[in-house]
Every structure is written in structure tokens, then in C-alpha cells.
Amino acid sequence: MSRAGLRSTARAGSSMTHDLTVHRHPAAFLEVGLSLQLSLAGEEGGGQYGSTVLGWKHRNWIICEWPFHFGQPIPCAVGTTCLLRYIYAGRIIGYRTEVLHSQLQPFPMLLLAFPSNIEAVPLRKHGRVSAHEPVVLLEVAGGIDDRRSVHQPRIGGLLTDLSASGCAVRLQRPIQDFFPGMVLRAEFEIVGTGHVNNLTALVRNVSLQADGTHLGLEFRFDGRETIEYRGWGGSVKKALESFVLQKHPAESA
User: Fold this and answer.
1) Is the separation of the CB atoms in 219 and 243 below 8 Å?
2) Pick from 150, 227, 130: which is nearest to 188 by CA?
């Protein structure tokens, strides 16, 4: 088995030394640098802590950063059961594991048991989060590559659910104003994260219901979209994925 990448030393006590070699070639569900969320079984409040995959040895162990909370490493004694969850290749991946070893030097890291059972839930099908936020839509008359949407009238509506790949919107507008394939640009708030601007969305379905016209939109990330939070600009796609992962019930992945 080929090995490459980061090499570090994990010490279990003062006398035992393990050479940990990170594989650079991703497995079917792993990738070096992958952002993940770690939660501890039985912890009151169901806290979720951010971490990063540093490497693994197939069928043996996974190395990840040891999360800190309020300046202190979270309690992770050997044998502690934890749940890892993250988004990979359009799926929410989840599995239970346990702590094999922890160390603070030369950097804080956890050595976790390689999972025996993995659950994967397609984001598009199951990763929707209920929402109740205002949304502004602008028609792009000339299609996805048209930049003239700034001159189109703004259409106000309500975001009713949100996923990493699309959303549902309710409008008080005639159903005749919309059609499948119509290109819009969307502006809305990701609660607790930031304000999304200029996100291209393709109308996938249109329906008339008792409370108004409903649209199903599919996001198209073309590099023109932005997200602003206290002056910081980041990736809209990553922000949406992170939001859905945080809100998605832990039991389902």
C-alpha cells in the first residue's frame, strides 16, 4: 500500500511511538483537508465541533484535528464514542467511531477508529432545511450569461426551504409570470451565516397553491454570487453546505 504526505508521531504514554502516515489518495468517502463536524455521544446539549481530516490508514484509523472549545480541547478520553459528519461528493456522510489516542504536541490531533459502517444521505434529496426568510428575485432575461438583471424589477417572496443545491420560494405573483427553465438571480439571508447576493437560480418547477405561487429553484454557482457577513466575503456554496449540515438531524447521517 502506497503512503505519502504528512508524517507525525503519536505517543500513547511515554514509551509507545506510532508513525502515522497520511494517504493523499482519497478513499471512497475521505479526503485530506475535508471539513467535518464531530459530536460526542451522550454529551448534554448535543454540541458539534469543527475539525479537519488530516489523514487515515484504510481499515485502521483516521487522524483529525482535536477541536477546541473556549480555548480548551474538548474532553476526548480513549474509548470515547463520537459521531463524524461531513459533506463529500454531494452526500452527507456520517459514522460512529471512537477515540484511540489524543495528543497536543506537535499539534492537537485525535486518532480515531476507522469506521465499520457508513451512512450516506444524498444532499439534494434529504438535505433540505425549513426556512422562513425574505428573498428577492430578479429575472435574467437573456439567460444565465446575461448580466442585465440589475435593470429588471425586483420580485419579493418568502424562502420556505433551503438546501445546498436549491430552494423553494413562495410568491404573491401570477403563476403565468414564471416557467421551468427561467433564469433568476436570488438574494437572501443564511441565518447566522451571512447575506447571499447575485446567486443564479434556474426554475425547475412552478405550482399554484392556496397561499400563492410556489417555485422550485436549482442553484447554479457561476462565480458571480457573493456572501457578506460583517464585511467578510466567502464561498456561497461552502456556506450553504455548512448551514445544511448543521441543521440536518444527526440521526439521519
Assistant:
1) no
2) 227
In a domain, 2, yes or no: no
Report the distance separating Cα 52 and Cα 61, nearest Å: 14
pLDDT per residue as tens digits for the range 167-185: 999 999 999 999 999 999 9
128: left (phi over 0), alpha (psi -120 to 50) or beta: beta
DSSP letter, residue 23: -
CATH number at residue 27: 2.30.110.10
* 86-132 pLDDT, tens digit each: 877 667 788 889 999 999 888 899 999 998 888 776 655 546 788 89
Q: Are residues 79 and 168 in the same domain?
A: no
Note if the pTM is more than 0.85: no
Question: Residue 172 has what DSSP assignment?
Answer: S
Look-up of cell digits 440521526:
251
Structural domain for 196, as ranges: 127-252
Alpha helices in the chain (DSSP H): 123-126, 236-247
The distance in angstroms from the start CA to the end CA of the chain is: 30
Residue where a domain terminates, one of 99, 123, 147? 123
194 grid coordinates: 451571512
Binned average pLDDT, 10 residues per bin, the chain of 253 residues: 36 36 50 82 70 87 89 88 80 86 90 84 66 93 56 87 91 94 94 88 94 94 83 73 68 41
Query: Do 82 and 43 form a contact (C-beta atoms < 8 A)?
Result: no
